[in-house]
Design goal:
The complex is a heterodimer. Chain A is built from 13 helices and 20 strands. By secondary structure, chain A is an alpha+beta fold. Chain A has 3 domains: about 200 residues, Uridine Diphospho-n-acetylenolpyruvylglucosamine Reductase, domain 3 (2-Layer Sandwich); about 90 residues, Alpha-Beta Plaits, CATH 3.30.70.1070; about 80 residues, 2-Layer Sandwich (Alpha-Beta Plaits). In chain A, the strands form 5 sheets. In chain A, strands 16-13-15-14-18-19-17-20 form an 8-stranded antiparallel β-sheet, sandwiched between helices. The radius of gyration of chain A is 22 Å and the shape is globular. The two termini of chain A are about 25 Å apart. In chain A, about 60% of the residues are buried. Chain B is α+β, with helices and mostly antiparallel strands. Chain B has 4 domains: about 90 residues, Uridine Diphospho-n-acetylenolpyruvylglucosamine Reductase, domain 2; about 120 residues, 2-Layer Sandwich (Uridine Diphospho-n-acetylenolpyruvylglucosamine Reductase, domain 3); about 190 residues, Vanillyl-alcohol Oxidase, Chain A, domain 3; about 55 residues, no CATH class. Chain B has a 7-stranded antiparallel β-sheet with strand order 15-12-14-13-17-18-16, with helices on both faces. In chain B, strand 8 and strand 9 form a beta hairpin. In chain B, helix 9 packs across helix 11. The chains are: A alpha+beta, B alpha+beta. The interface between A and B is large, with 84 and 85 residues.
Chain lengths: ~425, ~500
C-alpha cells in the first residue's frame, strides 16, 4: 500500500532526471529497501504513472522505446550482500549490486558466478536478471537461469514476494525465479536474488586461431565441439576481416595446459595462446564488442537457430546484409548454441524503414532475431524482440495479473507488453 | 455452454476421442488411479470419474475441451510413481494417462537434443541415446518406471543432479495443451525466443498449468572417464562433515550420496554391493570428466575423506564395479521391505553446512518417536530423504509417522531449508506451504496459475494450502498483516 512515509523517503533520494531511448523522466528515485520499492510502484500504479527500473544502466537501449516514463527507479541503493555462506556455495544479494563487485567478493573465497554477460562489471544483478543476457561461458556453464535459486520481487500491488530459497535444489511451489528472469521488470522489480555459486577454476587459457574464411573456422569449431576436449567457451567470430576460432579452457592447472596444447595443435591456422589473466581480458574485450558504444549509430542484432546450422546462419547474415548494403564489421557466433550476434552499420541513410527491412531479412534466415541495440528513432513502432512468441495471450494474462496498470516499462517488452 | 454432461455421454464422448480400449470407467479399473507412489494417510486417495489414454496431442486437447464442457477437472498422469500425491484426482474428474504417448520422435546428435512424447520412460531415453554417446541427465530413483512428462511436472532430480542440474536445466521446449484446449509450443531449439520463459514456468508446475504432449530435451555427452569412490565412516556425523568439506573445497562431484547404517543393513544382505555392515554411514561419490581431472579430483576427495575419518576409501573404475556400488544405492528403497512393511520418506533440503546438525536432529526425532529412520540421500545437494519405517497395521503408527514428519520438516525449514527438493508438493505437503511462504508469496504463485488456468481446471487442490484458491486468500492476507503488526489474534 502506498504510504506517505515512502513518498518522503523517495523524495529524499531524488536525483537528477534520466532518460531511456530519448524519453526523459521527470524524477529519479532510489529506494533503500524492498518495501520502499513496492511502495513506489504502488504509488505509481495508483496515479497511472509509468516506472522504468534502472540498475547499472548498461542495457538501457534493450527493448522497444518506452511508451512513457514518469519515474526512473534506481536500484543502486539495494546493493548489499544479504547472506553469503562460502561453505554452502550460495549467495543472497541485493539487486543493485554491481556484477564486478559481486565477483570480487566471491573471488576472495575462490568462488564465482560463471557468467560473462555483455555489460560486464558495471551491470547490476537486478539488471542481469531483468534482461537475461548471457555471454560465451554459456557453452559450459549455462546462464543465470541455471544459477538462480531464489528471488524477491516488488510488485505494483505494493507487495514484495519471495520464491525459491537458499538451497541448491528446490521444488517448493512453482518455479517463480525462472518466470521473472528476462521479464524486463514487467512482472515486478527484482529487489534481491539468491544464487548457487561455483568454485573459481584454478587456471585458464585461451586458444585463438585465425583463418581467412568462415568455412574453415566453423568446420574446425564444429569438430572441436564434437570432440571430447572440455571447453569453457567456444566461439567463431569475425573481427577486422579475419575469422577467429576461440576456445577457452578452464580447470586444474595441468589439465588446462594439456588441453590448450592439444587444442592449439588441432586448430591449425595462426595460433595465439593467452594464459591466466590475459585470457580473461581477451574474453572481456570480446564480449564488450556486443555492447553499443555511446553516440554511434551501430545496430546490434542477435539471431538464433539450430546449433548445427550456426555456420549457415552466420554466412547467411553476412551475405544477406551485403545485398541490402548493410556492413557487418563484427560478428560473434556460438556454435554450441546456434546464435549469432552481429554489429551492423546501416550507413548514413539509416532509418526506421531500413531497420525494419533488416529485421525482416533476419527473421527470414533465423528462428529468432532480436535487435539488441539501435538508435531510438529507428526503433519506433518496431517490435525489436522479433517474432511474437507462441502462447502470447498467456503472457498478456501474466502481465495483467502482475501489473494490470502496465506501470513498469509499458511497451518495452516483447509484443509491446 | 452445457455444464451438465451426464455420465453416459461423458463415456461415449471419451470413447469417440480415444477409442473404446482407451477409456476406463468401471470401479475396478479406476482403483489403481486413486493412488500414486505417495503414502496412504499422508495423501488422501480419490477416485476419478474416468481415465482416458490418448495417443496424440489433439486427443489430449479434445479431452480437455470435453472436460471444460462437462465442468470436470483434469489430472494428467504418467507412470504414477510420484511421491507427493500429485497425480491423485482430489476432486475426481478425468485422468489423462499419458503412458501410451511413449515414442522417442527424434534424437539429434549434432543439436544434442531429443524430441520425446511425455510417456517415454526416463531410463529408456538414456538407453536410446547412450549408443550415440549421450544421456539424459536427470536420473530419479524411479527412473526405470517414471516418465519424462512426470519428470517435467515435478522438476525431478536424482543423484547426478549435483553436477548436471535438475530436469528444468534439461528442457529446451515443450508442446503443451492449455486449459482452453489450444496446443502451443513454449521455448524451442533456438536461443533468444521472446517473451516470458513459459517453459521455465511449466517445469515443476505439477500439471496445474498445462499438459505436456511433447518435450524437447537436452542430451548430455557421456564423460570420458568415471570414477566411483566408496568411503565408509564410523558414524553419520563424520560422513556429513566429509560431505561439507568436499563441497566447500570447491569440488563438484557428479554425485555424492550418503547411506546410513540402517540402510546398509537393508541393502547389503540383499544386493551384496560391498558396503561394510559395521559402518555408521557410507559415502558414495562419483566423479566424471576427462581422465586426468578425474584422477586428480579422486585423490583429493580420498584425502578429505580420510582426514574426516573414513575407515578406508575404495575406488571403482570399471563399469561392472561401479554398477555394483550403485546398485545398493538405487535399490535402497525397495530393500527397506526387509526391515519394515511400510516406509514414508521426506524430501527436505537444507543448506549443506547444516547437514551434520540436521542429521543429529533426525536421529533425536527417531528416538523421541520410537521410530526407526533410515537415511539414504543426496548429501552433496543437502537433499535429505529420511525414511521412517513402520507397520501401518499397528493402530496409531501412521499418525506417529506424520507427527515425526512434521518435526523433521519444521527443523529443516528453521535452518533455512525447503519443503521439497525433487518430489514436489502435491497434496502431501501443501499444508506446509505457509511455513515457508507468506500470503504475498503465494499470491504471486496464484497469479501464475490464474494466467494459465483461471477456472482452476487442471489438477486442482495441489501445491496451494487447502481452500487457498477459493477464497482463503483474504484470510491468509489478514493473518500476514496481523503478524506484521504484531497482533496475535484478530
Amino acid at each position: 500500500m502506498p504510504s506517505n512515509e515512502s513518498r518522503v523517503e523517495s523524495r529524499k533520494s531524488r536525483e537528477r532526471t534520466g532518460s531511456i531511448d530519448g524519453i526523459v523522466a521527470d524524477e529519479v528515485v532510489a529506494p533503500e529497501d524492498p518495501q520502499a520499492v513496492a511502495a513506489v510502484l504502488a504509488d505509481a500504479a495508483a496515479c497511472g504513472h509509468a516506472v522504468a527500473p534502472v540498475g547499472g544502466g548498461t542495457a538501457l537501449g534493450l527493448g522497444n522505446p518506452p511508451e512513457r516514463i514518469d519515474l526512473i527507479l534506481s536500484t543502486l541503493n539495494l546493493g548489499g550482500i544479504i547472506d553469503y555462506e562460502p561453505s554452502d556455495l550460495v549467495l543472497s544479494i541485493g539487486a543493485g549490486a554491481r556484477f564486478g563487485d559481486v565477483q570480487a567478493v566471491l573471488g576472495e573465497h575462490g568462488q564465482r558466478l560463471p557468467l560473462d554477460p555483455p555489460g560486464g562489471a558495471d551491470a547490476t544483478i537486478g539488471g542481469l536478471i531483468a534482461t537475461a543476457r548471457w555471454g560465451p561461458l554459456r557453452y559450459s556453464n549455462g546462464t543465470l537461469r541455471d544459477l538462480l535459486i531464489g528471488i524477491a520481487v516488488a510488485h505494483p500491488s505494493g507487495t514484495v514476494s519471495h520464491a525459491g530459497g537458499m538451497v541448491v535444489k528446490n521444488v517448493t511451489g512453482y518455479d517463480m525465479p525462472r518466470l521473472y528472469l528476462g521479464s524486463l521488470g514487467t512482472l515486478g522489480v527484482v529487489v534481491s536474488a539468491n544464487f548457487k555459486v561455483l568454485p573459481r577454476p584454478r587456471a585458464e587459457a585461451t586458444i585463438v586461431a585465425s583463418f581467412h574464411g568462415a568455412e574453415e573456422a566453423f568446420s574446425q569449431g564444429n569438430r572441436l565441439r564434437g570432440g571430447r576436449e572440455p571447453l569453457a567457451a567456444l566461439e567463431v567470430a569475425l573481427v577486422d576481416d579475419r575469422w577467429l576460432l576461440a576456445a577457452r579452457i578452464e580447470g586444474r592447472e595441468r589439465t588446462v595446459d594439456d588441453v590448450a596444447g592439444r587444442v592449439a595443435a588441432f586448430c591449425g591456422g595462426d595460433i595465439v595462446r593467452q594464459n591466466g589473466w590475459s585470457s580473461a581480458e581477451w574474453w572481456a574485450e570480446y564480449v564488450s564488442r556486443q555492447q553499443p558504444t555511446a553516440g554511434d549509430h551501430s545496430v546490434i542484432v542477435r539471431c538464433g537457430g539450430r546449433p548445427k546450422e550456426t555456420a549457415i546462419l552466420a554466412a547467411g547474415i553476412v551475405a544477406a546484409m551485403d545485398t541490402i548494403d548493410v556492413a557487418v564489421p563484427s560478428l560473434a557466433a556460438s556454435p554450441g548454441l546456434g546464435t549469432v550476434v552481429a554489429r551492423l552499420e546501416l550507413g548514413a541513410v539509416g532509418s526506421r524503414e531500413r531497420l525494419a527491412g533488416v529485421q525482416d531479412v533476419l527473421l527470414g534466415l533465423a528462428d529468432t532475431a532480436t535487435i539488441l541495440a539501435a538508435p531510438p528513432s529507428w526503433k519506433q513502432g518496431l517490435d525489436v524482440w522479433g517474432r511474437l512468441p507462441e502462447g502470447f495471450d498467456v503472457m498478456q494474462s501474466l502481465r495483467q495479473q502482475f501489473d494490470p496498470a502496465r506501470t513498469v516499462n509499458p511497451g518495452r517488452f516483447a509484443g509491446f507488453l | 455452454m452445457d455444464t451438465r454432461v451426464d455420465r453416459y455421454s461423458l463415456v461415449t464422448s471419451l470413447e469417440n476421442i480415444v477409442g473404446k480400449d482407451a477409456v476406463f470407467t468401471r470401479a475396478a479399473d479406476l482403483l489403481v488411479y486413486e493412488y500414486d507412489g505417495s503414502v496412504d494417510g499422508a495423501v488422501e486417495t480419490a477416485m476419478p470419474a474416468a481415465v482416458a489414454l490418448p495417443t496424440t496431442a489433439q486427443q489430449v486437447a479434445d479431452i480437455v475441451l470435453l472436460a471444460r464442457r462437462a465442468n470436470l477437472p483434469v489430472v494428467a498422469r504418467g507412470a504414477g510413481t510420484g511421491l507427493s500425491g500429485g497425480a491423485v484426482p482430489q476432486q475426481g474428474g478425468i485422468i489423462i494417462g499419458l503412458t501410451r504417448m511413449n515414442r522417442i520422435l527424434e534424437i539429434d546428435r549434432d543439436d544434442r537434443t531429443a524430441l520425446v512424447e511425455p510417456g517415454v520412460i526416463n531410463l529408456e531415453l538414456s538407453e536410446a541415446t547412450i549408443p550415440h554417446r549421450f544421456f539424459f541427465a536427470p536420473d530419479p530413483s524411479s527412473q526405470k518406471a517414471c516418465t519424462i512428462g512426470g519428470n517435467v511436472a515435478e522438476n525431478s532430480g536424482g543423484p547426478h543432479c549435483l553436477k548436471y542440474g535438475v530436469t528444468s536445466n534439461h528442457i529446451l521446449g515443450l508442446e503443451v495443451v492449455l486449459p482452453d484446449g489450444r496446443i502451443v509450443w513454449t521455448g524451442g531449439r533456438a536461443a533468444g525466443i521472446s517473451g516470458y520463459d513459459l517453459t521455465g514456468a511449466m517445469v515443476g508446475s505439477e500439471g496445474m498449468l498445462g499438459i505436456v504432449t511433447k518435450a524437447l530435451v537436452r542430451l548430455t555427452p557421456m564423460p570420458e572417464a568415471t570414477l566411483v569412490l566408496l568411503a565408509p565412516f564410523a558414524d553419520i556425523d563424520s560422513a556429513s562433515h566429509a560431505t561439507t568439506r568436499i563441497i566447500s573445497a570447491g569440488i563438484v562431484p557428479a554425485a555424492l550420496e550418503m547411506m546410513d547404517n540402517l540402510t546398509i543393513q537393508a541393502v547389503e544382505p540383499a544386493y551384496h554391493a560391498g558396503y561394510p555392515m559395521d559402518a555408521g554411514a557410507v559415502l558414495l561419490i562419483e566423479i566424471d570428466g576427462i581422465a586426468d581431472d578425474v584422477r586428480g579430483t579422486g585423490e583429493e576427495i580420498a584425502t578429505i575423506c580420510a582426514e574426516a575419518g573414513a575407515t578406508e576409501v575404495r575406488s571403482a573404475t570399471s563399469q561392472a564395479e561401479r554398477d555394483l556400488l550403485w546398485k545398493g544405492r538405487k535399490m535402497a528403497l525397495g530393500a527397506m521391505g526387509r526391515l519394515a512393511p511400510n516406509y514414508y520418506l521426506h524430501d527436505t533440503v537444507v543448506p549443506r553446512s547444516k547437514l551434520p546438525a540436521t542429521l543429529r536432529r533426525v536421529d533425536e526425532i527417531s528416538r523421541d518417536f520410537d521410530l526407526p529412520i533410515a537415511n539414504v540421500f543426496h548429501a552433496g545437494d543437502g537433499n535429505l530423504h529420511p525414511l521412517m519405517l513402520f507397520d501401518r497395521r499397528i493402530a496409531g503408527s501412521t499418525e506417529r509417522v506424520l507427527e515425526a514428519s512434521k518435526e523433521i520438516i519444521t527443523y529443516c525449514v528453521e535452518v533455512g531449508g525447503a519443503l521439497s527438493g525433487e518430489h514436489g508438493i502435491g497434496t502431501e505437503k501443501s499444508g506446509y506451504m505457509t511455513m515457508v511462504y507468506t500470503a504475498d508469496d503465494l499470491a504471486a504463485m496464484a497469479g501464475l496459475k490464474n494466467s494459465f488456468d483461471p477456472a482452476g481446471m487442471f489438477n486442482p487442490d495441489k501445491i496451494f494450502p487447502k481452500g487457498y484458491m477459493c477464497g482463503e486468500v483474504r484470510a491468509l492476507r489478514m493473518q500476514a498483516m496481523a503478524q506484521k503488526l504484531g497482533i496475535h489474534a484478530l
